[in-house]
């Protein structure tokens, strides 16, 4: 029984190829394959005597051909039905000799002859000695031993061999002619083992002899390549055998007849092609009707033949012809018929012996494969595997199951295609029919459909669809599970622990949901047992084409902790700023916000990766080691060993390692060793676990190439790549602590001065050569939340940067640089708290020396060699981004009010008033009597002190009652309920003439109480030049109404005085906690009205002689004398003097004053001009009609500015 | 005919529903899919009758308009019963399809469907 039977077999001449002498299997294969290429002998190539007559009357010498069926001696077994099936006879023997090994050619010849003698049916022999050496002359050893000349050119060699084979086949042909020409009487009776040994056997045989004889003749004609002669003999044979009920011979004749039809068709087709090429217009012989009639005939013959075999219960022959017929169906594209036939064939084969059954099963499988029925193919392969099971041929079962498994959607079980042997077309029939195909195909592809049955073989190469490994896995879990269990069983039989482990892992990984818990545990113990016998270096990816247990979900590299994240130093001359035409672009901002910060690791520092594992199985998995798999710079991964409990959905593990060199680093995945097996779990660029196929496709895309810093773009969502990491050279490590600030929050009173220490310690291994401290604002959200609690806008001082609250001495830092490893220093930080401050973030950037030098060099080149721009540019290009480290220390200020000004006012005061205040002031005595220089704790300059002193003295002596002073009254409240404050004022006499009298006094302010502090200040005229108005920060929209000139002047005045006060008045406090600070004056509200009080009056209004109280009798005229004095050095014009009489005790408004007194002149006196330092005297005569008490108020109005200067005094007249 | 195997195969060669006895039967049904694919294009009917056999088993098939294959492996050839069985299962399948929570070509997990199919099986094949 042979595989892949076709009707072509009936007309192929069996030639045996034998290895002779010492020859290696490779050489033998090479030489025999060379011979096997020449299986088609054209009759036209045989040289004949033209006068010679042949018993083959109708042979076509032009189109006829002989087909050689080369069989390796190993595969050959003698059939007992050689007489019945002539084509099973060996007609020729070809020996293959390797001259290099078999040097003694005589001995070789002897061996060959010995081998040939085993095959008595051989009529033609040939021994080919390949690769003869120079010292092996072509001895005349007889025609049978031919030295094949050395020739590297294969074409030449084949040509030589073809010539040899033509002669060789001629011998066979002659034998066929002889057999056909033989007459009936000379031949013995032909019998087969099927014949029963009955008493009437001889008689029967005699009757049947002729039919059988003709059948044999037909067979020889067929072999010789003459279908027409074959028809003649077969017709006779069919007739005779049918009449004699010689069923198997009848069936045999019919089988031969079919073969002859096909051969004839083939020849016709070839000849037609020949003629077509000469005259293309000739009619097509192979019409559809011709084909159809042929086809009909073949079908009838075949069915009859099967039935005839069936009559004699010759199952073997029945199967043979069924398979041949099925093959024919396939060639005619009748798949369903073929399938039915094959199904029946398999049923018939039920009674055969085991080996034949296996053979049938395999044959059917192959036919299905050629039909592209891959599931049927797999099914019959599996059947074959089961039949083999009885023979315990584990190797074969394993192979068959492996091939079949591919078609049960288990492709990913194997790395290489297991069915690859089919594609190589190594088996016998495929090879010779293929060559035949090539010939006919090269001539025409148009008529392919009606070609030989061999057509089917073409499908082995072309029609089979590609198995898609990308297709998802679909169901069929039951079948797959069975198959894998079978494979496990076979592997156990083969003692192949590796395969057992592989299948168990595969089954567990794919079907854990369908497997019962108990079963899983059993599998695990099997796995445990078998994995122990495996060597330690088994990698499941390579040896099993699968990942191991457990599952990995995600691998995410983590960036270094915040204070260790390397920070790129942006070079000042970076190209990005150059190209920008617009200062602001919305796209840029978008880019910045979207740009995920790429992870940067530093060399030799521990870095972490988060691995998510899951164990859905019903058993615990012990992971012997879990390490990182990386590409790029060398990386040392610290292995981790742990256990994952059963039914764990996800388990996060952090593994760590360190990069040994700076450069690009790609995390490919993780290595997991469990059950003694290492698996490399690959991840994609987003860190999610992927399967092996995806991994290989990534490898093909160069995703793991690390030649440059630029990472190749593989996926569209490139910004989400997380597995590419930059490793930069070592950076120093600095530890900064603020030991006195608990929780990074400072609780301070407004205006408090506070100092705390910041400790710096180098904990790394590198020197720190530069430390830069800058302050930054808090995060926006934090700022908002803090600010929402406070509404202290009035405190904002425009002079300061409103956010800076800390100050320090940079030189102190510099004096400690470079900071050696292990050394430390502390830096005092000074805080001055204001109510609106919320604190700042300290940004401490530090780096080791390299950069600075480089920057310096860079700067130098920039300045000195500006001409040589080329070198400069290269310098910039070469400059790798430099890194530094950054520590963020947020210090939040929690500012509450201690002593706070809640009210502010300005009052007029004369020197006299000030004096009268004296007794209420603590330590006044000491101050007035003593030397102001001696007891001064303030930082007064000498001159100002003297000035103040003199002023003081002058004031006391003059004892003036005029309002040449004003009092600044600060109402101060203690907002705390816990602290007591001692307040002292500290005045600056540089710019303002304060009254010295009240300075240097101290006040106690107990909790929740209020005191007023009075600061006397001399009124002086407004300065001529005022600083311009500050624009409020961040306000770009101008007010709609433009202020008038005067309004603006007033605003500037207010601003000037507020600044003046804040600058020069310092109210220091000392709390009961011994903290120091000042009271902030920023929240005082200064209006223009108040400011004018500070102005020294330009005009002095007086009643003559300063007599402020008079007694006047009724009805008598009395003069009221008013002096208006210009105290400035300038002429004042446009003055109006008002005199206002009022009743001292006015009860009602309705009283008409004119009835009470009379006057001469006007209450309103215009004064056109008043020269400097001159006095204008005005006298108003009045007469009183009633006894009463009157009061006269005088005021002067500057006409231009409408500014009214009141007199500090009034005249009181009592009418008696 | 109590011994029968019924499978519904989806468009991508994936079983949607299995009512099986022995795993061998699944192998047979799986291999018959090739034949079904051949038959589908040669007939206008959904019911393809007996399309394949293996030893004593016959395989009947019914292919819906959306190329969902109903495969029945049985011993006796009772065409009417099989046809009715298929038609009624098709009805049930359509009802499953109408369920908005059922995605086309995904495994059928409905126990109601399972019970009804089993009932139909006993009705026609016992």
TrEMBL record, chain A:
GO cellular component: trans-Golgi network
Domain called Trs120/TRAPPC9 fourth Ig-like: residue spans: 1109-1215
Main location: Golgi
Span of domain Trs120/TRAPPC9 third Ig-like: 949-1093
Domain of life, source organism: Eukaryota
Chain ranges of the Trs120/TRAPPC9 first Ig-like domain: 570-688
Chain spans, region Disordered: 439-464
Domain Trs120/TRAPPC9 N-terminal: 6-196, 204-264
Domain Trs120/TRAPPC9 TPR region: 351-525
Keywords associated with the record: Golgi apparatus
Protein's UniProt keywords contain S-adenosyl-L-methionine: no
Bias (Low complexity): 439-458
Keyword Transferase applies: no
Subcellular location: Golgi apparatus
InterPro entries in the record: Ig_TRAPPC9_Trs120_1st (IPR058565), Ig_TRAPPC9_Trs120_3rd (IPR058567), Ig_TRAPPC9_Trs120_4th (IPR058568), TPR_TRAPPC9_Trs120 (IPR058564), Trs120_TRAPPC9 (IPR013935), Trs120_TRAPPC9_N (IPR058563)
Pfam families referenced in this protein's UniProt entry, alphabetically: Ig_TRAPPC9-Trs120_1st, Ig_TRAPPC9-Trs120_2nd, Ig_TRAPPC9-Trs120_3rd, Ig_TRAPPC9-Trs120_4th, TPR_TRAPPC9-Trs120, TRAPPC9-Trs120
Coiled coil start-end: none
The protein's name: Uncharacterized protein
TrEMBL record, chain B:
Species assigned in the record: Polysphondylium violaceum
Gene3D superfamilies linked: 3.30.450.70
Protein name: Trafficking protein particle complex subunit 2
Gene Ontology CC annotations of this record: cytoplasm
InterPro entries: Longin-like_dom_sf (IPR011012), Sedlin (IPR006722)
GO biological process: endoplasmic reticulum to Golgi vesicle-mediated transport
């Amino acid at each position: 029984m042979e595989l892949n039977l076709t009707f072509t077999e009936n007309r192929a001449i069996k030639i045996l190829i034998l290895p002779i002498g010492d020859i290696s299997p490779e050489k033998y294969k090479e030489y025999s394959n060379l011979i096997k290429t020449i299986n088609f002998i054209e009759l036209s190539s045989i040289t004949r005597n033209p006068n010679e007559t042949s018993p083959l009357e109708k042979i076509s010498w032009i189109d006829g051909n002989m087909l050689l069926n080369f069989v390796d001696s190993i595969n050959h077994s003698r059939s007992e039905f050689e007489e019945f099936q002539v084509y099973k006879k060996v007609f020729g023997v070809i020996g293959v000799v390797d001259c290099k090994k078999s040097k003694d050619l005589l001995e070789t010849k002897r061996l060959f002859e010995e081998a040939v003698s085993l095959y008595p049916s051989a009529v033609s022999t040939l021994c080919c000695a390949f690769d003869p050496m120079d010292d092996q002359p072509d001895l005349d050893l007889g025609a049978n031993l031919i030295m094949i000349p050395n020739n590297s050119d294969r074409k030449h060699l084949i040509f030589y061999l073809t010539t040899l084979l033509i002669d060789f086949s001629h011998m066979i042909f002659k034998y066929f002619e002889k057999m056909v020409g033989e007459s009936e009487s000379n031949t013995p009776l032909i019998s087969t083992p099927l014949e029963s040994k009955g008493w009437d056997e001889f008689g029967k045989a005699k009757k049947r002899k002729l039919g059988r004889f003709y059948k044999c003749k037909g067979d020889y004609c067929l072999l010789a390549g003459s279908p027409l002669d074959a028809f003649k003999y077969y017709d006779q044979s069919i007739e005779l055998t049918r009449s004699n009920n010689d069923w198997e011979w009848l069936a045999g004749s019919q089988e031969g007849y079919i073969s002859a039809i096909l051969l004839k068709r083939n020849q016709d087709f070839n000849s037609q092609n020949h003629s077509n090429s000469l005259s293309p217009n000739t009619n097509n012989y192979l019409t559809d009707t011709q084909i159809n009639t042929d086809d009909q005939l073949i079908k009838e013959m075949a069915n009859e033949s099967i039935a005839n075999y069936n009559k004699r219960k010759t199952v073997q022959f029945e199967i043979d012809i069924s398979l041949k017929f099925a093959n024919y169906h396939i060639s005619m594209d009748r798949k369903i018929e073929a399938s039915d036939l094959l199904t029946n064939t398999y049923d018939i084969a039920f009674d055969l012996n085991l080996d034949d059954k296996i053979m049938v099963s395999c044959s059917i499988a192959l036919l299905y494969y050629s039909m592209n029925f891959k599931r049927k193919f797999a099914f019959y392969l599996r059947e074959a595997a089961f039949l083999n099971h009885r023979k315990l041929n584990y190797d074969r079962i394993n192979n068959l199951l492996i091939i079949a498994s591919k078609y049960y959607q288990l492709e990913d079980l194997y790395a290489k295609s297991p069915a690859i042997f089919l594609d190589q077309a190594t088996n016998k029939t495929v090879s010779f029919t293929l060559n035949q195909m090539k010939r006919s195909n090269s001539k025409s592809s148009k008529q392919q459909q009606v070609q030989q049955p061999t057509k089917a073989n073409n499908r082995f190469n072309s029609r089979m669809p590609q198995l898609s490994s990308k297709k998802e896995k679909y169901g069929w879990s039951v079948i797959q599970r069975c198959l894998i269990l079978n494979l496990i069983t076979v592997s156990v039989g083969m003692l192949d622990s590796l395969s057992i482990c592989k299948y168990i892992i595969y089954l567990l990984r794919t079907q854990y949901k369908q497997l019962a818990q108990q079963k899983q545990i059993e599998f695990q113990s099997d796995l445990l047992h078998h994995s122990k016998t495996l060597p330690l270096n088994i990698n499941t990816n390579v040896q099993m084409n699968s990942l191991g247990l457990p599952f990995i979900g995600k691998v995410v590299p983590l960036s270094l902790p915040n204070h260790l994240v390397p920070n790129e130093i942006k070079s000042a001359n970076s190209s990005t700023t150059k190209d920008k035409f617009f200062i602001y672009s919305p796209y840029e901002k978008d880019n910045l916000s979207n740009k995920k910060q790429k992870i940067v690791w530093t060399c030799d520092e521990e870095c972490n990766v988060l691995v998510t594992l899951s164990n859905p199985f019903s058993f615990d998995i012990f992971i012997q080691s879990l390490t990182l798999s990386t590409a790029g710079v060398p990386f040392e991964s610290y292995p981790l060993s742990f256990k994952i409990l059963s039914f764990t959905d996800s388990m996060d593990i952090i593994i760590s390692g360190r990069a040994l060199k700076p450069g690009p680093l790609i995390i490919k995945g993780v290595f997991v060793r469990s059950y003694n097996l290492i698996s490399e779990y690959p991840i994609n660029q987003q860190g999610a676990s992927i399967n092996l196929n995806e991994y290989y496709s990534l490898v093909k895309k160069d995703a793991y190439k690390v030649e440059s810093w630029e990472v190749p773009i593989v996926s569209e969502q490139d910004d989400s790549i997380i597995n590419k990491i930059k490793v930069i050279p070592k950076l120093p490590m600095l530890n900064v602590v603020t030991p006195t600030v608990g929780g990074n929050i400072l609780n301070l009173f407004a205006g408090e001065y506070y100092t705390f220490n910041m400790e710096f310690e180098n904990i790394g291994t590198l020197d720190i050569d530069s430390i830069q401290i800058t302050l930054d604002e808090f995060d926006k959200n934090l700022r908002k939340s803090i600010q929402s609690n406070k509404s202290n806008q009035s405190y904002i001082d425009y002079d300061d940067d409103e956010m800076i609250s800390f100050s320090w001495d940079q030189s102190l830092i510099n004096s400690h640089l470079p900071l050696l490893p292990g050394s430390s220093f502390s830096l005092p930080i000074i805080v001055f708290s204001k109510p609106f401050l919320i604190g700042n973030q300290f940004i401490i950037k530090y780096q080791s020396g390299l950069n600075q030098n480089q920057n310096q060099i860079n700067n130098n080149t920039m300045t000195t060699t500006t001409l040589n721009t080329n070198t400069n540019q290269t310098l910039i290009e070469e400059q790798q981004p430099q890194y530094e480290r950054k520590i963020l220390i947020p210090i939040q200020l929690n500012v509450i009010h201690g002593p706070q000004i809640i009210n502010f006012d300005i009052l007029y005061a004369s020197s006299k008033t000030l004096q009268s205040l004296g007794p209420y002031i603590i330590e006044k005595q000491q101050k007035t009597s003593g030397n102001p220089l001696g007891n001064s704790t303030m930082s007064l300059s000498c001159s100002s002190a003297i000035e103040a002193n003199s002023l003081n003295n002058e004031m006391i002596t003059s004892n003036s009652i005029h309002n040449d002073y004003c009092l600044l009254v600060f109402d101060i409240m203690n907002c705390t309920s816990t602290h007591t404050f001692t307040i002292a004022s500290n005045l600056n006499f540089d710019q303002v003439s304060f009254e010295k009298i009240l300075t240097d006094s101290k006040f106690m302010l107990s909790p929740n109480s209020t005191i007023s502090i009075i600061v006397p200040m001399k009124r002086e005229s407004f300065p001529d030049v005022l600083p311009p108005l500050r624009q409020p920060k961040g306000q770009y929209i101008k007010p709609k109404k433009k202020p008038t000139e005067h309004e603006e002047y007033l605003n500037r005045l207010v601003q000037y005085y507020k600044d003046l006060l804040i600058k020069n008045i310092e109210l220091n406090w000392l709390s009961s906690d011994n903290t120091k600070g000042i009271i902030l004056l920023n929240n005082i509200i200064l209006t223009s009205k108040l400011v004018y009080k500070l102005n020294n009056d330009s005009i002095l209004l007086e009643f003559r002689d300063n007599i402020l109280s008079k007694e006047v009798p009724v009805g008598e005229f009395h003069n009221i004398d008013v002096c208006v004095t210009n105290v400035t050095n300038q002429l004042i014009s446009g003055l109006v003097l008002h005199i206002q009489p009022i009743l001292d005790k006015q009860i009602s408004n309705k009283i008409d004053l004119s009835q009470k007194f009379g006057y001469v002149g006007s209450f309103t006196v215009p004064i056109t001009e008043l020269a400097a330092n001159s006095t204008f005297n005005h006298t108003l005569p009045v007469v009183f009609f009633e006894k009463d008490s009157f009061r006269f108020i005088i005021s002067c109005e500057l006409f231009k500015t409408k500014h009214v200067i009141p007199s500090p005094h009034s005249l009181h007249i009592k009418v008696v | 005919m109590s011994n029968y195997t019924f499978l519904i195969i989806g468009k991508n060669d994936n079983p949607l529903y299995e009512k099986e006895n022995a795993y061998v039967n699944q192998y047979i049904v799986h291999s018959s899919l090739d034949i079904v694919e051949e038959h589908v294009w040669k007939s206008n009917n959904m019911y393809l009758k007996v399309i394949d056999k293996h030893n004593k088993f016959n395989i009947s098939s019914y292919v819906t308009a959306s190329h969902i294959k109903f495969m029945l492996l049985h011993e006796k050839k009772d065409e009417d019963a099989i046809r009715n069985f298929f038609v009624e299962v098709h009805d049930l399948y359509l009802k499953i399809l109408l369920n908005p929570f059922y995605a086309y070509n995904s495994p059928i997990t409905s126990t109601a469907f399972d019970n009804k199919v089993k009932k139909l099986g006993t009705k026609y094949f016992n």
